[in-house]
Amino acid sequence: MEKQLELYDITIIGGGPVGLFTAFYSGMREMKTKIIEFLPFLGGKVPYFYPEKIIRDVGGIPHVSGEKFTENLIEQAKTFDPEIVLGEQVTEMEKLEDGTFLLTSKSGARHHTKTVVLATGYGTLKSVKLTIPGAELFEDSNLHYSIRKLESYRDKHVLISGGGNSAVDWANELEPIAAKVSLVYRKSAFTGFESNVTRMMNSSVDVFNPYELTELEGKDGRIASAFIRQVEDGSIHQIPVDAVIVNHGFQIDLGSIAGWGLTMKQGSIQVDESMHTSIPGIFAVGDIASYSGKLQLIAGGFNEGPIAVNHAKLHISPKDELETIYSTNYAPLTEKYE
Ligand SMILES: Cc1cc2nc3c(=O)[nH]c(=O)nc-3n(C[C@H](O)[C@H](O)[C@H](O)COP(=O)(O)OP(=O)(O)OC[C@H]3O[C@@H](n4cnc5c(N)ncnc54)[C@H](O)[C@@H]3O)c2cc1C
After folding, report:
1. Measured between alpha carbons, how far is residue 309 from residues 16, 82, 95, 131, 290 in Å?
2. Could you tell me if 182 and 287 lie in one domain?
């Protein structure tokens, strides 16, 4: 193995909310920690799907936006300066003779670690892209696959393509902010929550269904208008736009991790009460971890991370007593925030 590879105590695959909190707790246990995240940013599903939604079911936080919650998680995760690697998808795992692990990313980058915590959610998140030729050229300007800031659409003409919950939600959220919202959906019936669909239908949103987006016309590197086709009679309409937002669903893919030989149950990884998977030294937490009574909620994952870390520490050093540590009486933290 390459000499330059640094050996970590714990490598957390996935920088979602649960991976981030696990990294914080791992620092509390003085474990040399690395987080590897596929996306170019941290926070997992929260900033990806719902940065502006209000989260109300995490203990001690009556309400917080997804964005603020993510900011806080990142600040907390960085308390003990873990190594953070962004934009890398871990694909391969090799257990070496000395019991340590060699992880390899799709890019070929390698990581050496004594233990692994899988905090991958259901896997890497990718939006289903438009298949219109040349559409990708507008991704840096005004073609978007998610909404980061509602305010950035103020007084704009926005076209949304899609008819699921998120697309209908976005139409309702943008309606009071944008100058005009149009929504194009290729089916006759919507699949979103009935109350949200009714709200949209009763609003000023121009709903085109069954229509599909067929062409984007650009000017100066931006989409200036969109062409939509009536699915039944084939008639074409042109809509001037300032921005196009596409919500055609997401692909969530655990990728080759599913082939590592871990015991799986309906797409999730089976763990015992110590969050240990069927491979000694590999733990799983958060949405991907499966056990009886499992709740796929952030609050549940925040308990699983510390359990996994404490047992990872025991795995590395079986004589280390399992300790419960409170952040309030952990000296390095007291000094840091005095
Ligand atoms: C619309 C919506 C609203 C929700 N609202 C709430 C709510 O109000 N309250 C609540 O408690 N829960 C809510 N949830 C559920 C909550 O978001 C999840 O339970 C939580 O995000 C799980 O965190 P996680 O860290 O396990 O996984 P994720 O958030 O999915 O993060 C996993 C990360 O791992 C990365 N990853 C995956 N595979 C690899 C790999 N091979 N290499 C590197 N990185 C990888 C992914 O890119 C991702 O960033 C909501 C979910 C959705 C979709």
Report:
1. 16, 14, 19, 43, 17
2. no
